[in-house]
Amino acid sequence: MKSPRRAAVSILRAWAKGHAYADSLIDRHASRNELSSADRALLNAIVLGVLRHRRLLDHWIGRLRKGRLDPETRDILRVGLCQLLILQLPDHAAVFETVELGKSPVRGLINAVMRRAISQRKDLLDLDGLSPAVAHSHPDWLFKRWRQRFGAEATTDLMAFNNTPPPTIARSNPLAAGSVTTALEERLSSAGLPAGYFKVDGPIPTELLASGAIYITDPATRHCVELMEPRPGEQVLDACAAPGGKSFLIAAAQGSGEWLTCTDSNDRRLPRLRDNLRRLHIEPAAIETHDWTRPAPEAWHGRFDAILLDVPCSNTGVFRRRVDVRWRLQPQGVEELTRIQRSILDQALPCLRPGGRIVYSTCSIEPEENEELVGALLADHPGLELAGERRALPQTDATDGAYAARLESRA
Asked: Which residues, other chains included, contact 113 with Cβ-Cβ below 8 Å and sequence gap of 6+?
């Protein structure tokens, strides 16, 4: 059995090669190494801690060790300093276990850096004078972009929020009989949350998940479905449905999945979508594969009263959950995504019935993907009108970032 610290280094090396997301790598390595729940929790904390604070960790390494480092040794030091300075694990365990991760020629170097970190801990943790982008571990281009839009103070608040591990929030399922019982309400806290949402403290209640009584989701996901207002009997399309969180909210609002059609562009995501909806007591009218950058089947033209387009986006509103995205995203990536988003909108429009409505949704906080794209669409389609918008900003709403716009077709 591999130690969680050694598994963390392996994950970081694989992640650096760009082959997979951090969450997938953590799941894979935890299962492969048969980690206990405690070791899995430690692995998760270390890997996500390193990725959240990667730039700050590298700043500390630069202060503690002059000269070049090979990539594996740098990742080992990131793991070690994350334990010492971010997670604040006991010094002895952090030093000993980190030194053991290195090959013989570099163990002395690793030991020296870790010992210096302990002796200089107070100075290292004093972040005054550091650029906020370094102190909060974000790329310079994103910091400058957000500072221009939100101002320096709000941008610092946003970056700090992105580095805060998110709470676990559950949505009760009205389609599951007796899902919100007195016992459930006693175990989960609903204080400060929208109706039907509960904060889960401690381990996730697996029996409630397995029975479909709850679904783990952030309250920000509700905005687009509430804006859509799906009603019983209406034909509704969830075009980018996997893994099914918003399909669940649509079916819950309609009281059934019988009028709901779910599609996704990747057929490999459909089994998980089916499993999730089945567990949540939802049987959609159809689940199909379709790439919405391409024309829709003729049979779908004019078929739907309401369409949800929760499109692929930059994910800048969910950095606290998708901790590695900030290092993958590039400025040109936002522009490329807007072309995909506009194509999806254009291809979905013919599927709307006269007088119907489309809700366009992202988990981005970038105006190019949100307000500006919707404005351009409306300028090109005078038969559409904007009937409502919702925005959630992490630094002000204390939820994931989200945008949704309701576009109505004139009958």
From this structure: 61, 64, 65, 77, 80, 81
